[in-house]
Amino acid sequence: MTMYVITHKAFDYPLPTGYTPILVGADKNANPNHYQPDNEGENISDKNPSYCELTGLYWLWKNANDEYIGLSHYRRYFSKYPTRGRMYLATIIKGKVAPVSLKKLDEIMQTTEWILSEPEQGGEGNVKQQFENFHNANDLAITRQVISEFSPKVLSAFDQVMQQSQISFYNMFYTSKSEMDAYCEWLFKILFEVEKRTDIANYDQYQQRLYGFLSERLLNVWIKYRQVSVTYLAEYQTDELDRSYAIDRFKQKLKS
């Protein structure tokens, strides 16, 4: 059982037992701390600028052998709390929140099939409108078309997720390796075809991360299609969550 921590650089943050950094874009990024690189074995490390953490996910799919497996980020982790409200309150009281332990994750897995980040709204409108507000709307239309051709049974789930107001972001999860493998087999088949039909050559560096952005939505589509059991945990960003930030956010939640 391992929680893999995606990073593109060396970082200094105390990780619980069972958390292992994986360096993405290892073809180009320095690795002074000898993290597990994503360019060993079968890999797509060279796609990192446009696939983001997915080059790490692909490496896990093709090379890892854990019974249970997860993905978080060097500055973004699951807490042990089911909601952000409870996490903010705990931070106000304790002053900090730590990544959830692997022991706790494995306990949760006895009664669920996936652990995802607590759903949130990524802007105004529904998920489709949110994506179109920040990215190229045609890229999402192409993705829908690819799903309709390559995976038509999933199309209804795609349309339902696009009409939601909230989803789980960040491509963070914890699940069994078999569940992850089934998801990856579907995801990369879709994304590799979308990549063939999209042109990101003139996108700026941020927008070139297209396939990472799409996958954040597609994880929710897969979960909707599979109708698996899900437990949500509040995630936090290490450079934001301190007592003063938690107080502000907790006040906002009380108002809403």
Automatic annotation (TrEMBL):
Pfam families, per the entry: DUF4422
In this chain the DUF4422 domain maps to: 3-225
- What InterPro entries has UniProt attached to this entry? DUF4422 (IPR025536)
**What name appears for this protein in its UniProt entry?**
Polyhydroxyalkanoate synthase
Natural source organism: Limosilactobacillus mucosae LM1
Q: Taxonomic classification, please?
A: Bacteria, Bacillati, Bacillota, Bacilli, Lactobacillales
